[in-house]
């Protein structure tokens, strides 16, 4: 089973990804590269203020990093480390399920063979 801090990081990532606006922001950063909240507001149907709040949550989850730019403008860039932790969490969870699910499949196969 995953370690507690891995689970906590994964939980933050999943909470951040649960919101469609945050997923749209991540997709925009993935396709267009680093951007400011103003840049993202120009590309998405979300206000700059809402984007700034979403970016703060994404940064807290470790999915984006803030980089100071010219004229006090902050650019946000994707950060994959937290996403990788969440992927590892899901992989460990899947491994934990493989045994019981395989046993269930074997049981169902045995039942199907026995009733034919």
Summarize this, please?
The protein is mostly helical and 116 residues long. Helices cover 70% and strands 9% of the residues.
Multimerization status: single chain
Question: Which sheet architecture does the biggest sheet show?
Answer: 2 strands, antiparallel
**Number of extended strands:** 2
Q: Describe the strand arrangement of the main beta sheet, using strand numbers.
A: 1-2
Radius of gyration: 20 Å
Summarize model confidence as the mean pLDDT.
Answer: 89
Order of helices and strands: HHHHEEH
Q: What portion of residues belong to β-strands?
A: 5-15%
**Unreliable residue stretches:** none
Summarize the amount of helix as a percent range.
55-70%
Supply the number of helical segments.
5
- Structural class designation: mainly alpha
Describe this structure in words.
Helix content is 70%, strand content 9%. It has helices spanning 4-17, 20-32, 37-43, 48-60, 81-114; strands spanning 64-68, 74-78.
What's the SSE blueprint?
Layout: H1 4-17, H2 20-32, H3 37-43, H4 48-60, E1 64-68, E2 74-78, H5 81-114
Antiparallel strand pairs: 1-2
Helix pairs in contact: 1-5, 3-4
Sum up the structure in keywords:
116 residues, 70% helix, two-stranded antiparallel ribbon, mainly alpha, single chain, 5 helices
